[in-house]
Every structure is written in structure tokens, then in C-alpha cells.
Amino acid sequence: MKKIALIITILFLATTIHAQFHIGPQIGYSASKLTTNTSEITSDFKNNFLFGAFARFGEKIYVQPEVNWLTQGGIWENNTLDEKLEMTYKTIQIPVSVGWRLIDLKIANIRIFGGVAANIATDKTLKINDIDEPLNNADWNDLSWQYQFGAGVDVLMFALDVKYMGGINDLYKGDAPDFTFDGNTLSTKSNMFTVTLGWKIF
User: Fold this and answer.
1) CB-CB contact of 146 with 116 (8 Å)
2) H or E element, residue 136
3) Euclidean distance between the first and final Cα of the chain, in Å?
4) If phi over 0 gives left and psi between -120 and 50 gives alpha, with beta otherwise, what is residue 122?
5) Does residue 185 contact residue 179 with C-beta atoms inside 8 Å?
6) How many CB atoms lie within 10 A of CB 123?
7) pLDDT class for 19, splitting at 50, 70, 90?
8) Which of 98, 84, 88 is CA-nearest to residue 171?
9) Is the pLDDT of residue 127 over 50?
């Protein structure tokens, strides 16, 4: 009797886990920005594509870890001096979010979610007026953190997510108290919007 109960329990758990688990690849678009607090410097978005994979555990309430390869950074411009500074951070990003299905239909659902993301830098470059500048890697964090929140829609096997990510720590960590451009202090917290389309293989 115990063996039968154990087999039934294992089959039930296996069925439940399978029903509540999805995994698949995803592609998307990202727009990242590094801000400034001075009117003399304007900041622009750095636009790029991303690709990666995601997994999802749960149904009504779920946990979704991801691994994405993308480029972050930003562009600062001093229009008075006609100078441009561009920071590029190529990263492996590992977001983890907790979500809730607001509307759950047979072929579609609408979700909201929030969480954190770790960014591991794989390459860093700095350009002034499109010319590469020397960059001391020790002055820039190899690991940065972001909070995230957003909404998503699932239709059949496809998952469309839109999220905002805000920087928690600065990318710059050099000996100088601030990162400056033309005498102006710049923020190096990476903020970004992403739109991803995922395909749930199962």
C-alpha cells in the first residue's frame, strides 16, 4: 500500500512540475541610458538587440530566471563644446523575477512581475567623439545590479515581456569620487527598457 501511495505521489508531483514548468529561447530589443544631473550635458539611449533563454516555474504565481546577452551603456553629449562620450558595457545579464497572472484564459494570459537582475561585464569600451579612449578596467565594476518590473502577455507558446530596469549600484568605482565629463558629474547607474519575445519549447 505504501509503495502504491509513493508511486501515486511521484506521478502526481511529476505531472504537477511538468504542467508548471516552461523553458525556451528569447530575442529582444534594449534601450539603455546613463543619466546626468546637469543641463549642460544631455544623455541619449543606446539601442541594441539581445538574445537569451528563460525558464518559468509556476502558474498563477511564478518564478522566472533568465540568462541574456546584451549591451548596456549610454551616450552623453555636450552640445556647447560639440563633444560626445559613449560608454559601452557588454554583459551577461541574469534576471530573476516573481510574477502574477492577472488574467488567465485558455490560449492567452496577462502577467505582471518584478525582481532583480545581476549583470556580469564581458567587455567595456569608452569613446570620445567616436575615438576609443584608454579605459582602466579596475575603475569599472565587473558586477552590477538592477531592480526590474514589467508586464507580459502569453499567447499559445509565445511570451511577450516589456520591462524597465533601474540601476542599483554605479558602474564606475574608481578612486576619484565621481565620474566626470567636461567638468560635469555623470551618473553611471544603468537604466534600461527591454522588450523580449520568447518561445516556450515546452
Assistant:
1) yes
2) none
3) 34
4) alpha
5) yes
6) 10
7) low
8) 88
9) yes
pLDDT of residue 80: 74
Distance between CA 59 and CA 56 in Å, rounded?
9
Residue type at 67 in one-letter notation: V
Q: What is the pLDDT of residue 7?
A: 47
Can you read off the three cell numbers belonging to residue 108? 492567452
164 beta partners: 149, 193
User: Residue 169 corresponds to which cell in the numbers above?
Assistant: 549600484
Q: Which fold has domain 23-199?
A: Porin (2.40.160)
Q: Is the pLDDT of residue 88 over 60?
A: yes
**Grid cell at residue 39:** 543641463
% residues pLDDT > 90 (the chain): 57
Q: What gap in Å lies between CA 135 and CA 159, rounded to an integer?
A: 39
**Res 132: pLDDT:** 84
From 33, 139, 56, 151, select the one nearest 102 (Cα to Cα): 151
Q: How far apart are CA 63 and CA 52, in angstroms?
A: 17
CA-to-CA dists, residue 94 to 51, 62, 63, 180, 186, angstroms: 12, 17, 13, 29, 26
